[in-house]
Amino acid sequence: MSRPRRSALFLPASNPRAIAKARGLDCDAVILDLEDAVAPDAKAEARAAAVEAVRQGDWGHREIVVRVNAVETEWGATDLAALVGSGIDAVLLPKLSSPDTLAQARGALGDRPALWAMIETPRGVLDLPRIVDAGQGLAVLVAGTNDLAKELRCRPGPDRTALLPALSHIVIAGRAAGLMVLDGVSNVIGDPDAVEAECRQGRDLGFDGKSLIHPSQIDPANRVFSPDEAEVEWARKIVAAFEGEERGVIRLDGQMVERLHLADADRVLKIHRATRR
Ligand SMILES: CC(C)(COP(=O)(O)OP(=O)(O)OC[C@H]1O[C@@H](n2cnc3c(N)ncnc32)[C@H](O)[C@@H]1OP(=O)(O)O)[C@@H](O)C(=O)NCCC(=O)NCCSC(=O)C[C@H](O)C(=O)O
Ligand SMILES: [Mg+2]
């Protein structure tokens, strides 16, 4: 398993207070945004601040990612050029709609860093099979639920019913290619129960974690996307039951358990070990 990505916190790279705050927050990834959270006349300043924040380091266990402006925009090429050799863990490409854009970004960046892609346009959703098969160091898909709702002209509401087909499609495509998949943001601040409910929905759809916009959303995301005590105990039981066992299927606590469950138990225990801090 790659590193845990239960909580990926966006912040505008133009906000120095948020950058300072993020160094002390318990999120798994920090995404310095140069795109929609930054006004056009602050783009150059935000770009310079992001590069400086990466250079200064002190990010601890947190993965450090920069969301650039779309390659097709007037800022895209300059953003990518500024990040060459910067030492960031990944570049997040917004509104990714074609594998050609992945290749273009890779060409501009060289061998590193990894690429993450926001799937938030109808074309991006439809072309997911070609996008995930393109390689280019693509490691993570992130659902862009605000842009998707806008483009589809749908009304997701609190239960996000209108977005479920697209969200599931993102999970299916990501899993088919062995990528990690992160759910879109919740715009709700100050209602941890609502955020936790949305995290649970995302986890149950198959997402590995959630993208976030406020520090108060980190705890619910970390809690929901970590295996709970009962899951860890059950996983340990399965691993113990298969030790020295030659059969492919056994009966355990009144349930049928197969080796596919053993593989999943191994995954659960790996996440548990990686997220104990
Ligand atoms: C939404 C906000 C503008 C709210 O800001 P504010 O009202 O100032 O929040 P608070 O007063 O509650 O803040 C308390 C302290 O926490 C810090 N803070 C707030 N947000 C963050 C953050 N994201 N990261 C780090 N620190 C944060 C404040 O600075 C306060 O600190 P201090 O004063 O020292 O106590 C704001 O939360 C915000 O800007 N959020 C991120 C917005 C963003 O990045 N948006 C872009 C990504 S979302 C998106 O585009 C999704 C996708 O593309 C799609 O289409 O769906
Ligand atoms: Mg978006």
UniProtKB/TrEMBL annotation:
Keywords: Lyase, Magnesium, Metal-binding. Substrate binds at residues 67, 120. GO terms for biological process: oxaloacetate metabolic process. Its cofactor is Mg(2+). SUPFAM superfamilies: Phosphoenolpyruvate/pyruvate domain (SSF51621). InterPro entries: Aldolase/citrate-lyase_domain (IPR005000), Citrate_lyase_beta/mcl1/mcl2 (IPR011206), Pyrv/PenolPyrv_kinase-like_dom (IPR015813), Pyrv_kinase-like_dom_sf (IPR040442). Its EC number is 4.1.3.34. Coiled coil: none annotated. Residues 6-215 form the HpcH/HpaI aldolase/citrate lyase domain. Belongs to the HpcH/HpaI aldolase family. PANTHER family: CITRATE LYASE SUBUNIT BETA, LYASE BETA SUBUNIT, PUTATIVE (AFU_ORTHOLOGUE AFUA_4G13030)-RELATED. This is Citrate lyase subunit beta/citryl-CoA lyase.
